[in-house]
Each structure stands twice: as C-alpha cells, then as structure tokens.
Amino acid sequence: GAGVSQSPSNKVTEKGKDVELRCDPISGHTALYWYRQSLGQGLEFLIYFQGNSAPDKSGLPSDRFSAERTGGSVSTLTIQRTQQEDSAVYLCASRAGPNTGELFFGEGSRLTVL
Amino acid sequence: SQQGEEDPQALSIQEGENATMNCSYKTSINNLQWYRQNSGRGLVHLILIRSNEREKHSGRLRVTLDTSKKSSSLLITASRAADTASYFCATDAYFGNEKLTFGTGTRLTIIP
Asked: How high is the pLDDT of residue A98?
C-alpha cells in the first residue's frame, strides 16, 4: 500500500478483555516495529521484526503482550487480559530493511482500557 | 530506558524566530534521525545524519552531530505556526541492534 496502515484507529475495552491491533506495512518493507506511546510521553520500543529472523521481543512489558508477523507482511499485536495501564497509543512503523534509515509510521491505534 | 533525551522538554517562541532542540544519547550509533509528530498523529521523518557527518541541512532544518559528546541539535530557522509539533530524536545502533530508540521529545509551540 501507499503507507503504513493500522487498525482499529480507536479501541475502547474493559479491563480483563483481550485486544488485537493490526499493522499493514508498506509493501516490500522487511523491517517492522511496534512502539507504545503514553499520553504526552516518548516512544517505548516493544518489538521488532526483520524478515524471517527471530523477532526482538526485548521491549514487551509483560507476557500478556505478544506479536506475530505472518508471511513477512501484516503484523498483529495482541494484549491479553488488558489492564488500565495498557491504555496508550500503539504505533507501528516499517522500513525497507535493517539500518536503512527512515521509519514510516502509521497513524496509531489508541487503546483505552476502562 | 530511553537512549535519547531531548531538551528542552517544551519550547515556546514567536513566529519567525529560530528554534533549537538538543538530543543526547548514551551508546555508539550508526546514525541519528529526527522526527516530527503533530498532535494525535504518527511520526514523520525529517532528517538523518550519519555518524561520520557533522552537519546536515534540509530546507529550514539544520542538524549537527557531535559523536564525542554523544549529542545532536536540530535548528529550525524562521519558524512558522505550522512548525508547532513534538520533535523526537532517534538513534540507530550498529548492525546487530536495529532497535531504533527514541528520545522523550521536545514540544515546540510557535506563537503567531
């Protein structure tokens, strides 16, 4: 596609429910990143996928968070048993390859846990 | 933990003035990038400077990099109201660690 697409743009859920956030990167981009941004804060790295290599999961805050990338394209970030502190904007970004410079960001998925 | 730290955290200037933001980082880098984020939107890439470069220009943007001090600055000249946004630096470490790490951001407000 023309840009990085994320869905849903907004998600309101109740504490304890599971949520799935989707990212469709730019076609041909092998590197895909997930970040979390709390209100007025910087970006917190969550996970990084590069081609068929094992993902770098070092930023996932707990075992309630997981992500997969199917066929080297679309990625899904899953948060199980959501907590109020999970409320944030989840940003996805892609780039052509490792250390290739510019990241292209989606508009984010705003998650609110009640 | 954040690799980059920007300062100031917030900056308000009159339209037409120059705005300078600084970024410090902790480990060796391959390159450093600056991004802009309008409220409620995703980030947009502004400029990239490699570790062997000291200064780079793009339109009204000027970026400097001092690897000995592990710091960078972003200068926006002749600011406009439309420059109001948050600005983030991001560091790309050497191959083997492609976890592009962002700083905490500077919130820039241009007063018309």
From this structure: 76
